[in-house]
Structures are given as C-alpha cells and as structure tokens.
Amino acid sequence: GRNRPRGARRSFGRCSQRLNPYPSWNEAPWWGCDVRTTVVRTGFWPIVRRRPEVLQAEHVLLFQRGVGYLLESTGLVVETFDSFDERVAATYADFGRRDLDVRSLRRRFDQGLVFHRAHDGNTFVASAWTSAAPRYLDDIGYLLAPPTGGLWLSDAFVAESRRGQGLFGRLADAIGAVASPGTTCLASAVSADSRSALAAHRRARFRPAGSIRMAHLFESVMWRSRVPKGWVDVGGYRADARLIRTGDTFRIDQGTRAA
Q1: 57 pairs with which residues across the strands?
Q2: Which helix (H) or strand (E) holds 127?
Q3: What does DSSP assign to residue 66?
Q4: Taking a C-beta distance cutoff of 8 angstroms, is the pair 228, 62 a contact?
Q5: How many CB atoms are located within 10 Å of the residue 61 CB?
Q6: Do the Cβ atoms of 12 and 32 come closer than 8 Å?
Q7: 224 to each of 172, 211, 235, how far by Cα in Å?
Q8: What's residue 183's pLDDT?
C-alpha cells in the first residue's frame, strides 16, 4: 500500500504468489505477509530495517518426479561415490565451488549421502547428491523421510557454461537410471526465493508435492506450518509443535543434523 516504506517488500522476502510458477499453488497470502504489514504499520519498521534478523521468513517447496529413463537416452555418463574420494573434492574445485571443504564433504558421506557427477563424453558438466535417509530442513527443524521408494536429490549443480541447456533434467534422468533397484522417484526441497531452481525443476518435469512455511522472530521464536499431507517427519526438532522456542537447544540440533 501507499504507507509501506520503500524496500519493505524486498526485505521480508516475497509472498508465494510472486514466486510460485505453478498457478495451482496460488494461495491466499500466508500470515508471514501479514506480519510484515503489521510490523511496518505499527512503527517497528526502523528497528527491522537496521536489524533484518528480527524477522526471517522461509517458504520451502517440495517436489517429486518419477524415474525409469534409460541412461543412454540422457547422453551423460554418471560416476557415483558412496564414500569420500579425492575426485569428489576435485570436482568441486573444477566447478569453482568453495561452499564445502573436505571436512564438510566427508560429513555428508558419513550421513549417508551419495555423490554423483556426470560428463557428456568430453568434460564433467553437472553433479548432485542423493540420499535414501530422511532430509533435515535445517532452517525449520523438520526431518522428512523420502517418499516410499524415493531418494532425496539435493545440491544439484550445472557448470556455468552449460546452463540453460536442460542438463538438470538429464542429470535427474541419469541418476534415476543408475539408482538402486526399487527406486521409483526423486524428491527435492527448494527455497521459494530461488527463482532459477524453481524454473529448473519445472523444466525437469518435477511436480509440486507440498510446501512448508516458517517465520522466525528475534531468532528465538519460530512459527512453522504443518508437515504437508503425504510427507512424514521421522524425528525432527519437536515435530509435533508448530510454535517453538529456538534457543541453544535448537541451534545445537541444527549443528548436529545439518549435512
């Protein structure tokens, strides 16, 4: 409205209507947007503008897609690692990625994740992680089991020079083709703030399968929506509670579970 200071909309994240590329998900504004409006209108905006950590909002979208494609049809060759190997670190270095060091990579393997890298016959062009274990949503505290017969697909990366060529979808096809027998689908969790990831999932024929919203106030109290129908929390942080305190116990839980 006219009374909202410039930048207020950006500083609190965006409503699902602006980010959601799927018309069937166009819902009424979730209460996080109402919180933002209330903060502005009640005069707390100067405090929040100086300290954006006062109110943090997150909207996570859940996706699924089937498997069953032939590896030959993808035009990719996939190498899979279920334990740490120097070639995994080398792949990160070749892609120019510095977000995970060797210790963090080893930790992922210790938690049961599997690393995949794909090349097109000439060079490595993409990579991703999969896991049959439950996935911890560290900003929210839920621990979600994958769908029956499914694998979590996470941290997919496509070489910058090859983006926009449908490689994410081909990578998902290839991973499904080399997955263990009995694997029927891939699941993914994506922040609604990541427009590029949402667009890539849509092009790769992932279908929306639910969403979770969270608002975190003063880094001490969190409200979160329920686990969507069809998904199961298997031991997250106070999974039965929608309103939780996020003190030291919550932060310790985050530190021990996050991959």
Answers
A1: 215
A2: strand 124-131
A3: E
A4: yes
A5: 25
A6: yes
A7: 30, 11, 16
A8: 94
